[in-house]
Design goal:
about 35% helix, 5-stranded parallel sheet
Length: about 325
């Protein structure tokens, strides 16, 4: 089987080659460009495409893939909001994903991001590098006893809550329309409504998937229900936050600090070096200008363990699809 991998980074090449022994029936073509309407032609001559979070796989692209003979779309991530599953089903294109490549990686990164914005590690690092050892402006607070709200309790949300509850002594509350029976043993208590979580939390961390029901779950209305001085963390999907609403809340001081590993229009900037370019996205540039916004480039997943699991799971799914027509990790519409 021939597979074209879009949006390839060096670590993708290394991990896939390591997981795919020489002489394997799987042959990969690695492409730097993202999958979109102009690059879809690259898939010609391949039975499968492998994509990541910022590749575009809408109905029109899926039609083109079908016309080119592509049978499978393999997501090397957990989310699938960038794939039109209904169109894929109609065309007979099967979609697989990696549902749990390393929830520990993202959960640990989330807690690190919380600690960074609360204790200002990034500011202290830069100061000391310049010989400035003053502590003014570096005041933080203890996580012990603070109420931290988790929105979405899949594997990542549960592990994040566990670290905070068991490791830091935080009061961890959660909201999820589909509660997990494992929450209590992780030290997490569910609340009945999102409104209750918003009003009680000192820190809010987002861990829900991006869907129609969760798009802009953080907006003017929900931000108004939070405590003044709330801290907001997002290591899930950028579209969960209305950026314009967040900027308004930052300008008034209602939100005291933000940690973001994702951004709703990140595809034009993330996973590339834009240091010599002007950021044309005004809202993105405005976010970066705030002293109390800490942003990283969608790296929460990036650990050795996660990359190995992504490669192993993706390869196994493709082999299973070719051999049996299905996979344990197939995504249905």
């Amino acid at each position: 089987m021939k597979i074209v991998v879009f949006g390839t980074q060096k670590y993708d090449v290394d991990s896939f080659k390591s997981a795919n022994p020489e002489g394997s029936e799987l042959n990969f073509t690695f492409v730097d460009a993202l999958l979109d309407h102009t690059t879809v032609i690259v898939a010609a001559g391949h039975e499968a495409v492998c994509i990541f979070v910022n590749d575009l796989c809408d109905a029109a692209i899926l039609q083109k893939l079908h016309d080119l003979g592509v049978k499978y779309v393999a997501l090397r991530c957990a989310g699938y909001n960038n794939v039109d599953l209904e169109a894929a089903a109609k065309l007979g294109i099967k979609v697989v994903r990696v549902p749990a490549y390393s929830p520990e990686a993202v959960a640990e990164f989330t807690v690190g991001m919380i600690m960074t914005v609360v204790r200002k590690y990034h500011k202290a690092y830069n100061r000391v590098r310049e010989g400035n050892f003053l502590l003014d402006g570096l005041l933080g607070f203890n996580l012990s006893g603070k109420t931290i709200g988790i929105i979405g309790t899949g594997k990542i949300g549960l592990l994040t809550g566990k670290i905070l509850a068991k490791g830091f002594g935080s009061v961890v509350i959660a909201y999820d329309p589909y509660p997990s029976s494992a929450a209590a043993e992780h030290g997490i208590t569910y609340v009945d409504t999102l409104e209750e979580l918003l009003s009680r939390s000192d820190i809010i961390s987002l861990h829900c998937p991006l869907a129609e029901s969760t798009k802009y779950i953080i907006n003017d209305n929900t931000l108004a229900q939070t405590k003044r001085g709330v801290i907001l963390i997002n290591t899930s999907r950028g579209g969960l936050i209305d950026t314009y609403a967040l900027i308004r809340a930052l300008k008034t001081g209602h939100v005291s600090a933000v940690g973001l590993d994702v951004y709703e229009r990140e595809s034009g900037y993330f996973f590339a070096d834009s240091s010599a370019k002007v950021i044309a996205d005004d809202s993105f540039a405005r976010l970066l200008s705030f002293y109390n916004v800490f942003m990283t480039g969608h790296q929460a997943f990036l650990t050795n363990e996660a990359l190995k699991n992504i490669a192993d799971t993706t390869l196994q799914s493709l082999r299973d699809l070719e051999a049996t027509g299905t996979s344990a990790f197939i995504v249905d519409k």
